[in-house]
Automatic annotation (TrEMBL):
It comes from Gemmata palustris. It comes from the Bacteria. This is Nucleoside 2-deoxyribosyltransferase domain-containing protein.
């Protein structure tokens, strides 16, 4: 596994997964996903930064631009919606990614996420093949299954 953290640029070969979802005010679920997928030869693109200078407006611009570029570059996108926040930016990003049928989506919402029903119904309408799961374990399992199917049936 190759780990890329914002703001490091990635434009390389190989399958990559962008870790989209809650960051501010949430537990570090990205670290859990990274640990669960560490044995796969994937590139994991993590927007959560260990050191984020909140006092500098330019840092926010750079972060948003990095996320925008890497959401587009990623082979697939994983979304996790934790219960601590509504994740308005992640919802916006999910809406955009749901329109791109060529990009695999993996979506999970904590059972206590306040907008779970919205995520489930909207995705059922836009991308019925995307199964919304309720745990990080199940989300990682979806990525693993997708990756294994890619290696068995290369494009």
């Amino acid at each position: 596994m190759t780990y890329i953290e914002a703001l490091t640029e990635f434009d390389g070969p190989g399958p990559s997964v962008f870790l989209a979802g809650g960051i501010s005010g949430t537990f570090d679920w990205q670290a859990d996903i990274v640990a669960r997928l560490a044995d796969l030869p994937l590139v994991l693109l993590n927007p959560r930064r260990r050191n984020f200078p909140m006092d500098y407006p330019s840092a926010a611009h750079a972060q948003i631009e990095w996320e925008f570029r890497h959401l587009q570059r990623a082979t697939a996108v994983l979304f996790w919606f934790p219960p601590e926040t509504l994740c308005p930016i992640a919802l916006y990003e999910l809406g955009g990614r749901a329109q791109i049928r060529e990009q695999p989506l993996f979506v999970g919402t904590h059972p206590d996420y306040q907008r779970r029903i919205d995520v489930e119904v909207q995705l059922k309408l836009a991308r019925p093949e995307v199964a919304v799961v309720g745990t990080i374990e199940a989300l990682a399992a979806q990525v693993r299954t997708w990756f294994e199917s890619r290696t068995q049936h290369p494009e």
